[in-house]
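User: Here's a protein and a ligand (zinc ion). What would the complex look like?
Assistant: Let me lay out the input and then the predicted complex.
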Amino acid sequence: MSRRYKLEPYSGPQSRYRCPKCEKSRCFTRYIDEDGNYLNETVGRCNHESSCGYHYPPKQFFQDSTNYTYTSHEHKKSHNKMEQQINTIDILK
Ligand SMILES: [Zn+2]
């Protein structure tokens, strides 16, 4: 159950967000998972390390929250896969 998360690579101003702590725009880097899905909007790191210092790593986030929406997203994904398999079986009949 261990996934790898990383800070989103810089791909232009649109890849930088408003920091939830100091509320400055385009200074906040969010974490993404292996598939490029964003974690919660509060999970990330602020560029203003000296003045703000906000850093909320995924590990900390998962410790804080057992009710994460990503889990339900994963369930939905596997459900769709199951539906696809059922459709395939129908075709084979
Ligand atoms: Zn900040």
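Summary: The longest strand covers residues 28-33.
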